[in-house]
Structure formats: C-alpha cells, structure tokens
Amino acid sequence: MVNVLSTLNINDEIFRKDYVAPPVQKKKPLEKVIDVEEDLMVGLPVKAKQKRVRRTKLEIVKDAKKRQKEIRKDEIKKLIIGEYQMALKNKKRRVNL
C-alpha cells in the first residue's frame, strides 16, 4: 500500500477539485452476418433427446401426491388380496373330524 501511495502525484489532474471524469461510452455489440446456403439445414437428423419440460413446484407437489395415492391404493389392494388368499388357505386347512 505504501508503494502505491508513494507513486501518486498530488498535482495530477485527477486530484483537482474541478475534475470531472470523462463520460463512459457504451460499446455497441458487433453485428456479424454470415452468408449461409439455403439448403444447409435441410436433411439434418432429428434431435434424439427432447427438451425437458420445466414444471413449477406446485405441479411437482401435485404429481407426488397423486403418485402417493396410487401407491396407497395398490398397497391396500395387495393387502386385501393377501388376506383373502390367506383366508382361503385357512379354510382348506380346517378339517372337521
């Protein structure tokens, strides 16, 4: 820091009270135009991977709830079918003597 301060010239134009910085000029973007043949894009293969659909968080939550309901229904069906099959097996095992 001392080195930087020692190189400053107090009589420099920047340190005058009436100094006004030069206006900042905006850079214009370069417009590049390339001549392309019209049949350049003809016959290209179709993109294999389709663009992903962006979903909102609300849609994601709704889908998750829907999936949970379906999973619960499937589990309940499995339990009912399992209990029914166990009942059938128990009936077959019962023998009246």
Plain-language structure description:
- With 97 residues, this protein is an all-alpha fold.
- Helices cover 44% and strands 0% of the residues.
- The radius of gyration is 39 Å and the shape is elongated.
What keywords describe this structure?
mainly alpha; 44% helix
How does the SSE layout of this entry go?
Elements: H1 2-7, H2 57-93
What's the helix count? 2
What does the radius of gyration come to? 39 Å
**Biggest pleated-sheet summary:** none
Mean pLDDT: 80
Beta-strand segment tally = 0
Short structural description:
With about 100 residues, this protein is mostly helical. About 45% of the residues lie in helices and about 0% in strands.
